[in-house]
Specification:
Strand 1, helix 4 and strand 2 form a beta-alpha-beta unit. The radius of gyration is 16 Å and the shape is globular. The chain has nine helices and seven strands, in the order αααβαβαββαβαααββ. A seven-stranded mixed beta sheet has the order 3-2-1-4-5-7-6, sandwiched between helices. The chain has a single domain, classed as Rossmann fold, CATH 3.40.50. The structure holds S-adenosylmethionine (SAM). S-adenosylmethionine (SAM) binds next to helix 1 and helix 4. The site of S-adenosylmethionine has 23 residues, from helix 1 and helix 4.
Length: 226
């Protein structure tokens, strides 16, 4: 985890630009859909774990302006960017430095938790999922947006882009070779959607549903506490 924390600190200034550029703007659509997937269940008290530069948290506030939203991340430089964006947008976002494995909140605090492109980066995924379960209210849901590997013929194009082109473009712009090679490598290691859904039920969630986005480049999971 310390490794990824330092890595995100290094690329914080380039993070948003590279996200939009390398995903051809799809990341914006994915976050929007993930947030409405969570808000379908109602509530007004939310936590965005691995908030980074805050884009999911801001999307929650956009779709539900009266919500109370916390954003948590261990990388101070990413959180600084989120803080600046909150100031510019005039949004009230409660930012906290911390890790998914040790959430600094009481049991049953939140109606919903989001984590976008972050569950892949935590050091202890099992502990993090247990923490999500703990801090959710009985009626709460955790929504997890994460990359996955597409199948079929599209996989060939995806592999070429994700493993060859993306790391080079990421490196040229951010001057950080490690960060943009780490991305495809960590996606390779992440479990298949059905396996990850099983991990969520093992953490205590009673029901898990998931949606495929953009031909399977990513999946969005919704896990119900009860
Ligand atoms: C790919 S970024 C995702 C940021 C944001 N959620 C988004 O949608 O753009 C991954 C984030 O995970 C954070 N992270 C790394 N280890 C973590 C941990 N143990 N707990 C919570 N966040 C962590 C990093 O600091 C980084 O900001």
């Amino acid at each position: 985890m310390f490794k990824t924390r330092y890595m995100f600190n290094r690329i914080s200034q380039w993070y948003d630009l590279l996200n939009h550029l390398l995903s051809f703007g799809q990341d914006i659509v994915w976050r929007k859909r993930a947030v409405s997937f969570m808000l379908e269940e109602g509530g007004d008290h939310f936590l965005d774990v691995a908030t980074g530069t805050g884009d999911v948290a801001f999307e929650i506030l956009k779709q539900k302006p009266d919500a109370k939203v916390f954003g948590l991340d261990p990388a101070p430089k990413m959180v600084e960017v989120a803080q600046r964006k909150a100031f510019k947008k005039g949004k009230k976002l409660f930012l906290v430095l911390g890790e998914g494995e040790r959430l600094p909140f009481k049991d049953e605090t939140f109606d919903g938790i989001t984590i976008a492109f972050g569950i892949r980066n935590v050091e202890d995924r099992k502990a993090t999922l247990f923490e999500f379960y703990r801090v959710l209210k009985e009626t709460g849901v955790a929504v997890i947006l994460e990359f996955s590997k597409p199948s079929g013929i599209f996989r060939l194009i995806y592999d070429l882009y994700f493993h060859k082109i993306l790391p080079i473009v990421g490196w040229i712009i951010s001057r950080d070779k490690e960060a943009y090679s780490y991305l495809p490598e960590s996606v390779e290691r992440f479990p298949k959607p059905s396996e990850f859904a099983k991990e969520l039920t093992e953490a205590g969630f009673k029901r898990v549903i998931y949606e495929k986005y953009t031909l399977g480049i990513c999946h969005c999971y919704k896990a119900f506490k009860s």
